[in-house]
Amino acid sequence: MIGFLIGRFQPFHLGHLEAIKFALVQVEHLHVGIGSSNKSHEKRNPFTADERKKMILSSIDSELQKKLSLHYIPDVDDHSKWTHLVDEIIPEYDVVFSNDDFTHELYGKRGKSIISVELKSRSNLSGTNIRNLILTDQNWKQFLPSGTIDVLSEIDPKKRLSDL
């Protein structure tokens, strides 16, 4: 079975890593969509798609990487067309992994199988919270895998976020 999981990964954190591991227990291959790939250097989307791809790959061991493929998924202004755009980008998949109600609704209307991903420590493990911690010089590294920390160290995330 082949799965699909999408996220913005702004930045890729421990909750995202757990979601990927959860999905890979249930499928042989997982397509990971890097959402909002056409957006960066914005308050809500500060990191580029390439930076987020690097965060993911550097945070996942080589055995898991063999079971993944990463794809850029741009935002579109028409939600009814979004899942069809995804299908043009992502090869065949049997199940969608998501914790987002709107994603469930969109794929549910199309009759796709959906498996809910449990959110762990959502108040801490959210991109918004982590970006705020970075901006305020608080302990943000505890919520990120080491690969993401390395990528962020290369780009000076506080300066990036402050500039926005």
What is the topology?
Layout: E1 2-7, H1 14-26, E2 29-35, H2 49-59, H3 62-65, E3 68-73, H4 79-89, E4 95-98, H5 101-109, E5 113-116, H6 127-135, H7 146-155, H8 157-163
Parallel strand pairs: 1-2, 1-4, 2-3, 4-5
Overall form: globular
CATH architectural arrangement: 3-Layer(aba) Sandwich
Oligomer category: single chain
Percent of residues in helical segments?
40-55%
General description of the model:
34% of the residues are buried. The chain has 164 residues and is of the alpha/beta class. It has one domain: Rossmann fold (3-Layer(aba) Sandwich), CATH 3.40.50.620. The chain starts with a strand and ends with a helix. It is 45% helix and 16% strand. The chain is built from 8 helices and 5 strands. The radius of gyration is 15 Å and the shape is globular. It has helices spanning 14-26, 49-59, 62-65, 79-89, 101-109, 127-135, 146-155, 157-163, and strands spanning 2-7, 29-35, 68-73, 95-98, 113-116. β4, α5 and β5 (113-116) form a beta-alpha-beta unit. α2 packs antiparallel against α7 (146-155). Strands 3-2-1-4-5 form a 5-stranded parallel sheet, with helices on both faces.
Q: Which labels suit this protein?
A:
164 residues; alpha/beta; Rossmann fold; five-stranded parallel β-sheet; 8 helices; 5 strands
Short description:
By secondary structure, the protein is an alpha/beta fold.
